[in-house]
Amino acid sequence: MYVAVKGGEAAIANAHRLLADRRRGDRSVPALRLDQIVEQLALGVDRVMSEGSLYDRELAALAIVQARGDMIEAIFLVRAYRTTLPRFGYTRAIDTGAMLAERRVSATYKDLPGGQLLGPTFDYTHRLLDPELAAGGNVAEPLQRAGDSEVMPRVSAILAREGLIEPDGDMPQDHVPGDITREPLEFPMARDIRLQALSRGDEGFLLALGYSTQRGYARNHPFVGEVRIGEVELELEVPELPFAVPLGSIRVTECQMVNQFKGSAKAPPQFTRGYGLVFGQSERKAMAMALCDRALRASEFGEDVVAAAQDEEFVISHSDNVQATGFVEHLKLPHYVDFQAELDLVRRMRAEHDARERAGRAEEKREAAE
Amino acid sequence: MRGQQARDQAERKAVMATLAQSTGDDIVRLWNEAGLPSEAEFLRGPETGLVTVRGRVGGGGAPFNVGEATVTRATVRLPSGQVGHCYTLGRDKQKAGLAAIADALWQDPAHRSEIETRIVAPLQAAQAKAREQRRAETAATKVDFFTMVRGED
Questions:
Q1: Using CA of residue A54, residue A55, residue A56, residue A60, what is the dihedral sign?
Q2: Which chain A residue shows the shortest CA-CA distance from B57?
Q3: Domain boundaries in chain B?
Q4: How far apart are CA B143 and CA A49, in angstroms?
Q5: Which pLDDT does position A163 carry in this prediction?
Q6: What is the model's pLDDT at position A1?
Q7: Would you state the pLDDT for residue B1?
Q8: Touching check for B57 and chain A: CB below 8 Å?
Q9: Of the candidates B19, B13, B53, the residue with the CA atom closest to the CA atom of residue A89
Q10: Is A191 an 8 Å CB contact of chain B?
Q11: Which residues in chain A have Cβ-Cβ distances shorter than 8 Å to B58?
């Protein structure tokens, strides 16, 4: 028998009204404005843009406030919004070498062209809570230093001059970059598709996997060749104009991971690489992405696939936090009928079990009597 | 002749780049100050959509898709016939409309210098200043290594 049940409409409407109230909180506290979130919770906004896979600061800020600060919910909102917009095309590939860098550090070369630029970093802070911030004190303007702007070649280019590192990562000439928003995932996948999935992947998941490689699960001896953060210009080819139209700039974080060398009978030993590129300012995510990218290249280098971080199907299928939260959280939605069926089944099994036991005991008694 | 055409295209692109990098508020303010005409027929938009941003594997290798960005575009025709286009990051429709009109006016010899001096030049100057300030602030965080001499020689 199947009985359809309807109900809860009023409860749902009232719950959403209550949610709106709780989201707003105490009305005597001023409501947050989106520009406050964009300016003062900038890295949270960047995370929502990166994992929501949509570069738009105001929308990410709106999503954060609507989600009451629940980042995965905010990412979900942004992903849903994205599907409502038409596509104008694919930009020309950004040139991170031409970036106006706001931070650029290398752990492999002390004196590299362009220098070590710390930028606005949490590194070297003492991680002590600042009571002055709670009191809302004034903040000093940053210092400036004059001087010529130096060119800032990628560290990989420096190593490449000596042939000590593998090239950037080419695909066959006629290869069209795959797009996971258009085609379903298929395994094994090309590196370009993997990078797209990793770039929108969950920061915590990729961080844990990257960490696992450092702890010995698919160890590959990484060095941060370089991390750079800054703005790059976007250009789009459109049929109505004879040149690529400039769209403006976006901020990205790039990580070039340099990993232990590989060689073969034919090729001399050289460093291998992992690559990370994410929207906004997030070097943790870019570094984790680069570690995972390198680990996932195991079969390319003939390495044994022994750890989770090397398992493409495992990593890519579970890196998307919108899919993950959808499947985990759906468990709390009504499963009354499913559960009734299970309940019925377990009752029947119990009855059969009890019947068997009773029969067994009767048999024992009979044998003892005989 | 071809050289002239290439120069024109490069200049037009530079104007579009400056407008795309500006905020809508700045464009509106300068537009009002200059008293430029803003009547135009919208052939398309302003409408918001997505572009997929591409990066390169390893920084310089094969292209891959990083994620999407919002872009607003508009195409306008002036009463004098010029057709102008704009594509700009974000969702500011007023900005996209005005930038498309600016592109059309720039193609009209009667308005080109006005667009360049009253709109583009001040925006460019402000952008160059902001860029230089950002660069100088970053430069102040550059590490100057020095060698510690230890022990007696």
A1: positive
A2: A169
A3: 2-135
A4: 31
A5: 84
A6: 56
A7: 59
A8: yes
A9: B53
A10: yes
A11: 156, 167-169, 256, 273, 275
**What would the mean pLDDT of A142-159 be, rounded to a whole number?**
84
Residue A73, amino acid: E
Q: What ipTM describes this predicted complex?
A: 0.93
* Positions in chain B short of pLDDT 50: none
A187, A312 in Cβ contact below 8 A? yes
The radius of gyration of chain B from alpha carbons, rounded to an integer in Å, stands at 21
B-facing residues of A in 295-354 (CB < 8 A) are: none
Q: Are B139 and A142 in contact (CB under 8 A)?
A: no
**Average pLDDT along chain A:** 92
Contact B59 A144 (CB under 8 A): no
Give the closest residue to A233 by CA, choosing from B22, B17, B67: B17
Tell me the two tokens of residue B121.
């030049």
Say how far residue B24 (Cα) sits from the centre of its chain.
11
Return d(Cα A302, Cα A146) in angstroms, integer: 50
| Dihedral pair phi/psi, residue A264, rounded to 5° | -145, -175
Q: Check pLDDT > 80 for residue A265.
A: no
Confidence (pLDDT) at B152: 64
